[in-house]
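Chapter review: from sequence to fold.
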Amino acid sequence: MGRRILLIEDEPHIAEAIRFFLARDGWTVATHDNGLDALEVIRAQEPHVLVLDVMLPGRSGYEILADLRA
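The token string follows.
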């Protein structure tokens, strides 16, 4: 399955630009666009790397990160 990144970003143009560069370097990139159910998506996908936007609808990247660290 290779190297997997989960990108949580609510701005479609930014997400697509980041996805393009990471995919070009060989990463498999999944995207998600809100903070409300981000923890469930993270746990379901088990990415090798997680990229979080700070300002997301529903919950901030900081809140999601704090929950992951807890």
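Two observations follow directly from the output. The chain has a mean pLDDT of 95. DSSP finds three helices and three strands in the chain.
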